[in-house]
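Single-chain item
Fold in token form
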Amino acid sequence: MAMLKRGLAGEPVKKLQEKLGIEVDSQFGPKTEEALKTYQRKHGLAVDGIAGPDTFTHMALYELVLLRTGTSGEAVKKLQQALGIAADGQFGPGTERAVRDYQQKSGLTVDGMAGPETLSRMRIFAEITAETVERSQVPAEMLAPLETPSSSPATAPARRSIWETVKGFFS
């Protein structure tokens, strides 16, 4: 998940609602969608009621920027330029490979996604700093426990990505 749209809930939705200056209930419903469309229209963004990387960067919600396979736009184009690959603004398999290579060489977690930690190292956006990376994390206790036999409280990370709090609430 790298975008917020109607039917989702969680901490990223809460941050979006706070930025939009509307009632904060952490659920992306019709009021959030309409407020987002109004913001997008006012600021010359694509008016689709979906918050993705370009909307997040415009709103200075850098802690929510997560570029991964399937995302597109100016933020992806900047990433591709920084990686020295064809910059078409579409995050596909070639971009993922380049991100993985960069992460491997930089000693980062190799997941093929460019979130705040990877982007802060690349210095694509001056606004993505160590503080941004910190804001992109939540305490592990905010997440549902991982139900895997190999995980134990002693080995589970204390903080996890804010995106792991996103849940759908409409069927």
In short: The first helix runs from residue 11 to 20. The chain has seven helices and four strands. The beta strands are 8-9, 137-139, 159-161, 167-168. The helical segments are 11-20, 30-42, 53-58, 74-83, 93-106, 116-122, 130-135.
